[in-house]
Each structure stands twice: as structure tokens, then as C-alpha cells.
């Protein structure tokens, strides 16, 4: 069975994006472990299918009505019936055991690698310990779903949530580092899903959901996904991207975001003073960002990120 | 007292009053379970056609990447109408249609226990369908058949579509509740002499279970949609987190109904299969008691698995583990059924008539749906598969390939009883193979579509991975499937006039409905035979044979 699973994995190792028989993986250990668990159940399923379907086909061929053939007037066979009930129960039991063995590795975040991004001590969140890696250290990003875009809020060392770095559509993360996500929604239900980075987590208003991923060093690149819960007419266009960069690049990116945020903050303060009277109206006009965007892959260059962060800051 | 020697029998002098034929008035005023059954079947198959056209439109839109055939709003309306129609207006009530027509006949009753309530059930269904489809002229709902809040709240979908959906749920729900009580009372009280519980036909067992499940599950969704209605129109905030409500409450209430609903849809299908296989294998059902018991076990477990539709919601691990384990357990009684059906075919003499083909097509297809069900039940795995086309494939394997194939098997099997004429075998076989091939071409590849990263309920997708080719295959399959279904529709309509006359028992079947004429007279039976086994007709045929072979037939 295991051999079959491994064999299938090798056979279908072809083009990276196309998944024929198993979920996507390769971007994060939890996605890889889900893939393995799936492969085991799938292999068991294939064996069961072949056995049962084989019996069915055999019966259809062997026991078709022929002249002279007489049907055996049989009402049951208690020993056989107990046997297959026990067999089915045994298979379910084995699948259950395998699942429980693999569950912690999928659910609980791994520790970051030694060469991952060094998370500043002040960044720790007051998160439930179970949702953090064993060493208690992760880059915890706040993910907010709204019709029809994702907003990412990065942690920082102070308690003021207003001056945090934010990004829309594209989340930039360091490789080798465990990223934990707090997933929320500010309107209807959405679902966060980047297939190669693991499973989905629904974003529901009034709740905070959690998931995690850790992109290995050397697998820098862009990982794409899209909202997986019907959230309205533009649901299909609610895409999400994770751009994995090296820890060094991430340090730079974060610093540049912060400095432009600070500049934008100064500019925004001036702006706010000038517009003090009709502030509310002006802010409202800037709000609906993603609504009209028809493009599948919004090119989130650094400058447009800046503009958005600035707009976000200006709103407050 | 001593003077009374004979039981007094009330004597009614019958003079038959010729009722003038009034055509359709007869139909709309009828309380005859057979006519009501026919009306159920005609109406639900009509809705099947409508839902099918909606499905083809959906598949057309998805045939190629970035298609612009339908706009997003129309697309969301179509998926909502398709899902709602198939669930509430086709699969659930079509089972009530067969149940209405055949349960009284199978148990040797002259009608349902409450004939007038029976008519009420049907008309509630019709009213629900009417209200729902009336929204086509205004604004059909756009929230999917699950109508999750907050999307379905007045803030996001203020127009009347969601309200039409709510009324559909209420009206069809009342109809189903009334009908279920009726089935229950009928089966409990009107069985033929000698028909003990262990001689009840398996189809009647499943209709009984269907009724109990409906009675238990419907109040949850009735409550859920009532809360939604008051949230939408009367200022309550049951589902609004900003006011202390909870969108998860909706999901729990919905799925507390929604999962039993899937067994409500498929269990009567199991019943049809359990009737058809023994007749065409010319062999008794293998493990009658195990099959009946697994029906009850599935229903019981089916009430305890609802949150496996909510594995990705913010819910505590213990909850997820509980629902994972209960969902996995369900595969055991399901397995018992599949094995027993194969056991029924084993060492039989299988006659490949169309009802049997559909039953075997059901077996193979349902097997795949059951296996993918276990895969989905492992919640870490479901985190990847949930809300993708993998799930769409899974539930079409169990509903379309499972329940609907069983319905078609039942249609070919019972059509002669209902109309007195046989359906055409050749056309039936062509239709079966077209449907089987079309079905698997459509849905097998959808597993891969989901694994390739395509969520469900999206009107357009980018040309990444193999999505373009997979989706095109699926769309082509859908049209093949459509043609197959159309062939059966043509077959049924043609056979009404041109089919061979069937006589009372064309299949040499086992249960009491074949004891009477085809179609049965108004009172079903002039005399109800005493039942001595699960297969009364077999006993009766054997008895006739024995008497014919007696050297000196004793005159009765
Ligand atoms: C072996 C038995 C089965 C198991 C373990 C099972 C398991 C599951 C699970 C876990 C899901 C949720 C998947 C998700 O949304 O991520 C699901 C969905 C579904 N199943 Fe099954 N299933 C089984 C049989 C059936 C049967 C017999 C039917 C109906 C006749 C059915 C109909 C459905 C439907 C309609 C959905 C999707 C509902 C929706 O989200 O719209 N399943 N099943
Ligand atoms: Cu969405
Ligand atoms: Cu379910």
C-alpha cells in the first residue's frame, strides 16, 4: 500500500502546477504532510475499489443468466457478513490511527529554521501557545478578508496597530521562517487558501481562524491561490499571492515599507489638517479599492504597495 | 349476550354511481395515493429537466477559461437555482413520489393512512416550487443552495431572491413533514396480514427511515430560515456578529439538516436497489436483516456528522475530531450494504434488463463516491479539498451517479406497474450507456480539477495547470449525460402509447405491488393475500405451481 502511494507520487511528479490525483504541495511542510496522508488513504481507496469493483464485474460476467443455470436460493451467510463488517471496521481503524499520528504535524506549526528570519523579540503576539511553534516564535500576520481582496497586517514592536505595515493582495514573507496567520473577515465569509502552502481556513466575521506555513529556504518565489468561499459576485477574482523572499530581502522590504509608511504618515497628517472639515467624505471616496479591478493578477509593484499603504494610513 | 352467535357485519347495498370523467379536475382534487404519486413524479422530473438545463448552462460557462458567456450575477443565480432545484424539488420529492405510489401497494394497503394530508403534501411542494421559480421574474437568489450568512443577509443580498428561497424551504418543508408522518403511520399500521417488521420490503424500510430523518432534520432548517427571515425583515440579529449573533450558528443549523438530507436523498435509492437486484438476479436479497439494520445505523450516524461540512471553520479541535470519527464510522454500514448487494448478485442468474443495468451502474458509481467520502472525512485532508471541485465530484458521484441512477432503475422497473406498458428495452440500454459514460466523463475529471486548485462556485478561471482541458472534458461529458437522460424521457413518453402491454407481473418480481393489475385499480387489491415471507409473490407463484401440478386439484 505504502509502495503504491510512493509509486503514484513518483509517477505524477511531472509538471509542478498540475495535480492529477493528489492535492498540491511543495511549498510548506504541512502541505507535504497532507499530501502524504492523502496518498495513504488514496492508496487504500484504490485497493478497496479494485477489490470491490472486481468482485462486481466478476459477478456480472460469471453469473449472467444462461440456459440451464439455476440461481442459488441463498439468504445470507452470517460468518461472511460478520467478516466483512469486521474488515470494514479494521480499515477504518487503521485509517484513523494513521490520521491521528499525522495530525499534529499538520495542525501544529513547525519551528523556524535556524537560518530563517530572526523574529525580533518584541514581535510576540499574545496568541494561544498551541497555535505557535514549540519555540514560541513565528512571524504572525493578520489576514483580513473583505469583498474582494485580502489585507495583510504585519506585526511590529509597539502596541499601536495603526502604524503597522500593511499590504493588499500580495503577502511578502521570508523563507525558512514559520508564518502563522490570524484570519478574519470584515464583511461576509471568505476562505484563505494557497494550495501549495497547505489547507484552507475560513475567514468569518466575528471569529479568528488560524493556519500556518513555512516555505523552505531555496523555494523563494510566488505562490498563488484564491478565495474558496462564495463571497459575492466577484468571488472568482478574489485572488491571493504569497511572495517568498530570503530573510535578508525580507528585512529590507520591511524596512522600506516602514519608512514609506512613516513618510506617508507625515503627508497624511498634513493632508488631514487641510481637509479637516470634509475628512469623512474624502476617506470614503478612497475606500473601495478592489471593487472595480477586473484583472486576475494585480501587479502589486512596490510603488503601488506604497500607495495603498499610504492610502490605508491616510484613512485613519 | 348468549344470543349473539355471529359477528354482525354491516351490510351496505352498493349501487355504483357513474362519476362523470372530469379530466384534470380529477387530478387536482384527487386523494388517491397513486394519482398523487404520479403527480409527484411528473412534477419532480420536470424540475429535473429545468435543473439539468441550468447545469448545462453552468458547464457551458466553464467550458473554456475566462469565458464571458454569463455575467457573474447570472452565474451565481444559476448555481443557486440548480442546487436548490435538484435537492429540494427533485431528489427528495421524487423519492416521495415513488414512496407514495408504491409503499401502500407493497405493504398491501388500499391507500395512505391520511389521503387528504397526502394531497396537501404534494400541493405544498408545488407551491414551494412555484414561489421559488417566481423569483426568476424578479431576482433569483445568489447565495448558493447553502445560503451562508452574512452573504444571505439583507446587507449583502437585499433583493427578494433569498426570501423566495426561504419560502421554498418552508413550504416544501411543511409538505415533507406532513408526508413523512403519513408514511410513518401508513407503514406502522396498514401492513398486510402476516407482514411483520422482518417481512417489510426493504424499499418500505428506507422510506420509513427517510420519513424519520425528515421529521428530525427539518425543524432545524425551518428554525434557521425563520431566524434568517426575521434578521432580514424584522430587525433581529441572530447571525450578525456585530450585534452578538453568529454566522456559525447558521452553518450548524443548516448542516444539522443538510447532512441528514443527503441520506434522505440516497436511502430510498438504496431501497430501490435492494428491490431490483434480487428480482433480476432471481435470487433472494443477501442479508436482509443486515441491510435493514445498516439503513437504520446510517440514519442514526447520519444525524451526528453534520460538522464535517465545517472542517475549515474556526472550530475547536475536539469538535473536528468528533465529526471526523463519526463520519468515518458511517462508511462501515455503507460498506455492509455494498457487500450485501454484490452478495445478492453472486451465484444468481443475472438478467440484464435496463433496471438491473441502472442498479449495477449505481453500485459501481456509488462505490467511488463512498471512497472519496472517507477521504473527505479526514479533516486535515479536507482542509485541502473543501470547497473545491473535488467535493463537487464527490457529491455528484453519490447524488447523480448514486441516487439518480437508482431513481432511473426504479423508473424502468415500476413504469409497467404505473402505466400498464413496458418501456423500450433497446432505447433504455442505449440511454443507460450514454448516461453512464457521460456521467463519468463529466465528474471523474472534476476530482482533478479540484486537486489542481479550482474552488467551486466560480464563474471563471485562469488558464493555469490543466484546468482548461479538464473543464472542457467535463463540459463535453455533461452534454453526453444530457443526451442520455433525454433518451429516457423520450422512451417514457413514447412507451405511454406504444409500449408492449405488461400484464400484472412482467418481471416475475417479489413484492405485493405485482399482485394486482397494471395499473392498479382504484382500491389497489380486491383481496390482500397473507404474507409469509419477504417475497410474497414468490410464495404465491410457487403455490400456484404446486396446485397446478397436483394430480387431483381440489376445487376451492
Ligand atoms: C461514506 C459515506 C460518506 C462520507 C464519509 C461523506 C463525507 C462527506 C464530507 C466530509 C463532505 C464535506 C466535504 C467538504 O465540503 O469539504 C461531504 C460533502 C457532501 N456529501 Fe458526502 N459523504 C458520504 C456519502 C454521501 C452521500 C451518500 C451523499 C448523498 C447522497 C453525500 C452527499 C454530499 C453532498 C451533497 C456534499 C456537499 C454539500 C455541499 O457542500 O454543498 N455524501 N461528504
Ligand atoms: Cu470568495
Ligand atoms: Cu455530510
What's the short story on this structure?
By secondary structure, chain A is α+β, with helices and mostly antiparallel strands. Chain A has helices at residues 2-11, 29-62, 78-107, 247-274, 279-286, 302-315, and strands at residues 139-146, 149-153, 166-168, 170-174, 178-185, 190-192, 201-203, 209-214, 221-226, 239-245. Chain A has six helices and ten strands.
What tags apply to this protein structure?
heterodimer; A: 316 residues; alpha+beta; Immunoglobulin-like; five-stranded mixed beta sheet; three-stranded mixed beta sheet; 10 strands; 39% helix; elongated; B: 556 residues; mainly alpha; Cytochrome C Oxidase, Chain A; globular; disordered N terminus; binds protoporphyrin IX containing FE; binds copper (II) ion
* Largest contact between chains: A-B, 83 and 85 residues
Q: Could you name the CATH class of the domain at 129-261 in chain A?
A: Mainly Beta
Average pLDDT over all residues of chain B: 94
User: What profile does the largest beta sheet of chain B have?
Assistant: none
pLDDT average of chain A, as an integer? Answer: 85
- Total separate domains of chain B: 1
* Spatial strand sequence of the major β-sheet of chain A: 3-2-1-5-8
Total beta-strand segments of chain A = 10
- Alpha-carbon distance between the termini of chain B? 34 Å
Amino acid at each position: 500500500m505504502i509502495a503504491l502511494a510512493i509509486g503514484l507520487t513518483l509517477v505524477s511528479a511531472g509538471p509542478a502546477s498540475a495535480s492529477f490525483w493528489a492535492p498540491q504541495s511543495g511549498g510548506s511542510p504541512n502541505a507535504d504532510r497532507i499530501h502524504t496522508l492523502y496518498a495513504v488513504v488514496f492508496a487504500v481507496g484504490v485497493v478497496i475499489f479494485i477489490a470491490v469493483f472486481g468482485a462486481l464485474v466478476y459477478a456480472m460476467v460469471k453469473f449472467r443468466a444462461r440456459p440451464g443455470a439455476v440461481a442459488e436460493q441463498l439468504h445470507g451467510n452470517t460468518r461472511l457478513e460478520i467478516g466483512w463488517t469486521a474488515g470494514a471496521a479494521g480499515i477504518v481503524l487503521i485509517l484513523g490511527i494513521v490520521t491521528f499520528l499525522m495530525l499534529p504535524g499538520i495542525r501544529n506549526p513547525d519551528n523556524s529554521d535556524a537560518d530563517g528570519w530572526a523574529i525580533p523579540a518584541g514581535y510576540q503576539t499574545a496568541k494561544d501557545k498551541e497555535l505557535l511553534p514549540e519555540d514560541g516564535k513565528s512571524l504572525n500576520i493578520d489576514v483580513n478578508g473583505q469583498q474582494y481582496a485580502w489585507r495583510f497586517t504585519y506585526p511590529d514592536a509597539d502596541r499601536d496597530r495603526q502604524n503597522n505595515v500593511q499590504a493588499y493582495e500580495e503577502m511578502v514573507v521570508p523563507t525558512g521562517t514559520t508564518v502563522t496567520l490570524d484570519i478574519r473577515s470584515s464583511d461576509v465569509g471568505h476562505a484563505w487558501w494557497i494550495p501549495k502552502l497547505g489547507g484552507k481556513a475560513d475567514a468569518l466575521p466575528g471569529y479568528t481562524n488560524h493556519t500556518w506555513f513555512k516555505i523552505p529556504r531555496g523555494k523563494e518565489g510566488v505562490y498563488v491561490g484564491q478565495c474558496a468561499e462564495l463571497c459575492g459576485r466577484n468571488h472568482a477574482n478574489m485572488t491571493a499571492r504569497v511572495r517568498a523572499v530570503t530573510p535578508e530581502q525580507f528585512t529590507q522590504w520591511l524596512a522600506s515599507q516602514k519608512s514609506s509608511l512613516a513618510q506617508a504618515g507625515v503627508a497624511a497628517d498634513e493632508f488631514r489638517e487641510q481637509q479637516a472639515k470634509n475628512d469623512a467624505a474624502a476617506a470614503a471616496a478612497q475606500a473601495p479599492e478592489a471593487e472595480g479591478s477586473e484583472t486576475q493578477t494585480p501587479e502589486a509593484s512596490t510603488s503601488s504597495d506604497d500607495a495603498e499603504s499610504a492610502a490605508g494610513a491616510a484613512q485613519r | 349476550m348468549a344470543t349473539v352467535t355471529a359477528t354482525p357485519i354491516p351490510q351496505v347495498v352498493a349501487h355504483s354511481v357513474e362519476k362523470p370523467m372530469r379530466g384534470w379536475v380529477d387530478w387536482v382534487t384527487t386523494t388517491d395515493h397513486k394519482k398523487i404519486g404520479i403527480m409527484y413524479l411528473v412534477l419532480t422530473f420536470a424540475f429535473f429537466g429545468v435543473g439539468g438545463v441550468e447545469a448545462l448552462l453552468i458547464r457551458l460557462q466553464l467550458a473554456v477559461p475566462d469565458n464571458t458567456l454569463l455575467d457573474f450575477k447570472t452565474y451565481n443565480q444559476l448555481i443557486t437555482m440548480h442546487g436548490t432545484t435538484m435537492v429540494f424539488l427533485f431528489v427528495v420529492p421524487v423519492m416521495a413520489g415513488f414512496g407514495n405510489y408504491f409503499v401502500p401497494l407493497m405493504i398491501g394497503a388500499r391507500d395512505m393512512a391520511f389521503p387528504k394530508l397526502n394531497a396537501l403534501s404534494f400541493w405544498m411542494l408545488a407551491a414551494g416550487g412555484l414561489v421559488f421559480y417566481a423569483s426568476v421574474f424578479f431576482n433569483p437568489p445568489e447565495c448558493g443552495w447553502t445560503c451562508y450568512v452574512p452573504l444571505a443577509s439583507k446587507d449583502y443580498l437585499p433583493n427578494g431572491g433569498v426570501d423566495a428561497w426561504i419560502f421554498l424551504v418552508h413550504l416544501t418543508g411543511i409538505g415533507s413533514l406532513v408526508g413523512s408522518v403519513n408514511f410513518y403511520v401508513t407503514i406502522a399500521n396498514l401492513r398486510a396480514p402476516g407482514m411483520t417488521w422482518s417481512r417489510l420490503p426493504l424499499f418500505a424500510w428506507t422510506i420509513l427511515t427517510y420519513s424519520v430523518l425528515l421529521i428530525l432534520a427539518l425543524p432545524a432548517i425551518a428554525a434557521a430560515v425563520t431566524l434568517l427571515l426575521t434578521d432580514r425583515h424584522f430587525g433581529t440579529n441572530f447571525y450578525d456578529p456585530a450585534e452578538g449573533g453568529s454566522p456559525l450558528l447558521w452553518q450548524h443549523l443548516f448542516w444539522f439538516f443538510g447532512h441528514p438530507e443527503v441520506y434522505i436523498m440516497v436511502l430510498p435509492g438504496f431501497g430501490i436497489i435492494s428491490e431490483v437486484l434480487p428480482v433480476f438476479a432471481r435470487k433472494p436479497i443477501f442479508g436482509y436483516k443486515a441491510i435493514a439494520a445498516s439503513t437504520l445505523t446510517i440514519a442514526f450516524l447520519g444525524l451526528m456528522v453534520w460538522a464535517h461540512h465545517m472542517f475549515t471553520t474556526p472550530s475547536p479541535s475536539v469538535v473536528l475530531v468528533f465529526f471526523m470519527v463519526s463520519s468515518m464510522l458511517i462508511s462501515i454500514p455503507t460498506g455492509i450494504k455494498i457487500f450485501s448487494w454484490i452478495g445478492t448478485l453472486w451465484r444468481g442468474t443475472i438478467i440484464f434488463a435496463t433496471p438491473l443495468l441502472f442498479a449495477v451502474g449505481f453500485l459501481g458509481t456509488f462505490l467511488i463516491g463512498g471512497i472519496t467520502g472517507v477521504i473527505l472525512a479526514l479533516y486535515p485532508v479536507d482542509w485541502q479539498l473543501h470547497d473545491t471541485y473535488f467535493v463537487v465530484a464527490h457529491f455528484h458521484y453519490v447524488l447523480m451517479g448514486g441516487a439518480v441512477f437508482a431513481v432511473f432503475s426504479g423508473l424502468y422497473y415500476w413504469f409497467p406497474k404505473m402505466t400498464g406498458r413496458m418501456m423500450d428495452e433497446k432505447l433504455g440500454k442505449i440511454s443507460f450507456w450514454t448516461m453512464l459514460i457521460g456521467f463519468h466523463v463529466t465528474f471523474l475529471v472534476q476530482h482533478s480539477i479540484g486537486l489542481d486548485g479550482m474552488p467551486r462556485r466560480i464563474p471563471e478561471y485562469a488558464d493555469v495547470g490543466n484546468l482548461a482541458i479538464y473543464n472542457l472534458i467535463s463540459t463535453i461529458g455533461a452534454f453526453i449525460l444530457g443526451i442520455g437522460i433525454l433518451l429516457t424521457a423520450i422512451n417514457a413518453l413514447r412507451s405511454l402509447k406504444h409500449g408492449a402491454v405488461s400484464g400484472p407481473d412482467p418481471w416475475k418480481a417479489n413484492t405485493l405491488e405485482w399482485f394486482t393489475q397494471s395499473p392498479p385499480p382504484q382500491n389497489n387489491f380486491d383481496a390482500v393475500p397473507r404474507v409469509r415471507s419477504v417475497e410474497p409473490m414468490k410464495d404465491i407463484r410457487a403455490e400456484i405451481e404446486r396446485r397446478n401440478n397436483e394430480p387431483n386439484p381440489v376445487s376451492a
